[in-house]
Design goal:
alpha+beta; 2 domains; 10% strand; 283 residues; two-stranded parallel ribbon; Nucleotidyltransferase, domain 5
């Protein structure tokens, strides 16, 4: 989705192989209702590549029950780096960062299996620390103690691992490698075709023309989407009245406006200045 001024968001669906825009949907939030309205107009694909928004996945299950989901590996890496930070302080975080960095380097089924084994080995090594809890009575100064009786001591690290574990078990990390899905052609594993091909020109337009009225902003975004569709034909949008435009209204002449015909004849400069002779000593 591309966010713009006035609280609008533009959801865009593209073909993962060609990068062409299939359909779009204006909304105020990237929620299930907006995604359902978009998906309901599109035949169900074999695979949906998504960045992981819950609304997208719920709409996919409702509209396309037989469609597999492939999570964008770049977004998974980004989320993994956000939780324990780019430079983890704990040794467990440093070791978990390795399989996250290896996600985009998996190209075969065998490598995917080894990746899952490495993640399981990490859990076996660090399952005790990530299951550790902190009781509110032991840390009353923590803001969480005001509304929780306990919390996971290493919550960010645990959330990072659980995300990778669930995605792997749900077969959403390496769906792009499964033979039954690749039989019709290669399957994308990221949303780069959307993030790098369709969204940037729309965002640049909104930035460079931020003074446009809301309706014009939306038309400009829709025009970019149209030019990214299959075989766009801008000439087909020209109507008959565009070939025979209405004549511009006649402008009044200066005579009709009771104004002087030529510049400089309306005001006499001498009327505002007293003529004075130059002294004889002036050269």
């Amino acid at each position: 989705g591309t966010h713009m001024a006035h609280g609008w968001c533009l959801l865009i669906a593209i073909d993962g192989q060609t990068g062409q825009v299939i359909d779009r949907q204006w909304c105020h939030q990237e929620n299930t209702a907006a995604c359902t309205a978009l998906f309901s107009r599109i035949p169900g694909p074999d695979v949906l590549i998504t960045d992981g928004l819950r609304g997208v996945q719920k709409a996919c299950h409702a509209c396309w029950p037989g469609t597999r989901i492939q999570r964008c590996l770049v977004h998974v890496q980004r989320n993994t780096k956000t939780d324990p930070t780019l430079k983890p302080r704990l040794q467990a975080g440093k070791e978990l960062k390795r399989p996250s960095d290896q996600l985009t380097r998996v190209h075969t089924i065998e490598e995917a299996v080894r990746w899952g084994e490495a993640l399981n080995a990490w859990h076996e090594r660090w399952k005790t620390p990530i299951d550790e809890r902190t009781m509110a009575k032991d840390d009353p100064a923590n803001p969480k103690a005001s509304h929780q009786s306990w919390w996971w001591t290493h919550q960010e690290l645990r959330r990072c691992y659980r995300r990778l574990e669930h995605l792997f078990q749900d077969r959403q990390l390496f769906a792009f490698l499964e033979p039954e899905l690749t039989a019709g052609g290669p399957v994308e594993r990221t949303t780069n075709r959307l993030e790098g091909g369709v969204n940037p020109p729309i965002k640049r337009t909104l930035l460079q023309h931020h003074g446009l009225p809301e309706s014009h902003m939306r038309r400009a975004c829709e025009w970019h989407c149209y030019m990214k569709t299959d075989n766009p034909d801008p000439a087909s949008l020209i109507r008959d009245e565009h070939h025979q435009p209405q004549p511009a209204p006649k402008r009044e002449t200066r005579q009709e406006q009771d104004e002087p015909e030529h510049y400089g004849t309306a005001i006499n400069w001498n009327e505002f200045h007293t003529p004075v002779r130059y002294p004889n000593t002036t050269l």
